Amino acid sequence: MRNAEITGWGKCMPPNVLTNHDLEQLVDTTDEWITTRTGIKERRISHVEASELAAVAGLRALAAAGKTVNDVDLLLVATCSGDSIIPSTASVVQRHLKAWNAAALDLNAACSGFVYGVVVGTNMIRGGTNNTVLLIGTEKLHFVTDFTDRTTCVLFGDGAGAVVLEPTDEPIGLLSSELGMDGSVGHILGVPRDGTAGDPGPIDPRASAIGMEGPELFRRAVTTMGDSAARAVKDAGLSLEDIDLVIPHQANTRIIDATARRLGVDESRVFVNIHSYGNTSAATIPVALTEALEQGRVDPGDNIVFTAFGGGLSWGSAVYRWGERVEPLGESDAELPPPDRTTMELLQANFDFFGLPEKLT
Ligand code: COA
């Protein structure tokens, strides 16, 4: 049977860092609170657009797969903080890459976008429509973050991760998946005014920022990710002992720990890098997968569980069997242009729009 496997992987994290101690200078918070309540120590603030992060991550993934941009016949960009709605962020990424042979579309399932993308990309290959799918999760969440709101501004960060999917006849790749959405509670996480709903007119800056009911999301994230991952493992015909690595969406270490407990997997089999990057939505899993490979945490034939939860409220879990190769075939020399501003200088535009954080007033 024609299957699809991940043959390349890469990430692009912008260099500007915003630490918990920096946030202490802005809002009424502490490194201790953020660390114990979320696991986050620092996050990245991008000086370029989400499409540029995506393009560099994509070039690195293509090099790891031994492919060129001309090979790509489908470009899937999972994002909820992309450059624009029209043209799609995928269109802009295509332009950066000069991937002229690729059909391209955005896929917005918020933090679940990468898991949705793996399922869509795999099935496009299985169906015979595509041969080289470049799937990128990219976010510039600081753009929609209000740094006067301590309940959200400590959580989110920017970054991009990418994978290349190619056909294989081996019994590897996606073994099972479960995707879901509960639109009846979509309002508990979102940016109220980032589309066409409502009348045209002046926009209240607060409505352009991410807002959420944190504790309610927390509760739903734990049950939904744990249960859907368990169902996906069962559907794959595997037991929990067969799972070598869980790569969960990185929203909060307490959510990750509780999900792992609910799933029945000990922490040694769970990949966590949230301390370095915070929640980068659709980018967390491809970035974590790339780092897991770089750190030798993936072995040939490993059974890996991807599980995510996010705005929508969306969720997705997938059981994926790795192939033989865990080393990249090549390396790209693609780099972002160096930033010309400090992290605080980059955030000044947010302060001008949303208002000055209380400690700067
Ligand atoms: N620093 C210090 N105190 C803070 C704070 C911050 N950055 N943010 C909130 N607090 C305060 C609250 O105001 C509250 O104070 P009060 O008791 O005086 O009212 C107290 O801490 C507890 O707030 P609560 O919201 O109950 O905390 P929590 O333990 O639920 O943690 C989150 C808050 C946001 C970290 C947690 O709910 C969470 O991670 N939720 C999921 C969010 C998420 O993942 N969203 C994206 C989904 S993909």
Structural class category: alpha/beta
Q: Which ligands occur here?
A: coenzyme A
Level-1 CATH class name of the largest domain: Alpha Beta
Question: Within the CATH hierarchy, at the fold level, what is the topology of the largest domain?
Answer: Peroxisomal Thiolase, Chain A, domain 1
User: What's the structural domain tally?
Assistant: 2
Q: What is the helix/strand order?
A: EEHHEHEHEHEHEEEEHEHHHEEH
Unreliable parts: none
The coarse silhouette is globular
The CATH architecture designation of the largest domain is: 3-Layer(aba) Sandwich
Radius of gyration, CA atoms, in whole angstroms? 19 Å
In DSSP terms, counting alpha (H) and pi (I) runs of 4 or more, how many helices?
Answer: 11
How is the biggest beta sheet arranged? 5 strands, mixed
On the 0 to 100 scale, the average pLDDT is 96
Gap between N and C termini, in Å? Answer: 63 Å
Q: Strands of the biggest beta sheet: in what spatial order?
A: 1-7-6-4-5
Q: Name the CATH homologous superfamily of the largest domain.
A: Thiolase/Chalcone synthase
Q: What's the oligomerization state? A: single chain
State which percent range the strand residues make up: 15-25%
Number of strands: 13
- Proportion of helical residues: 25-40%
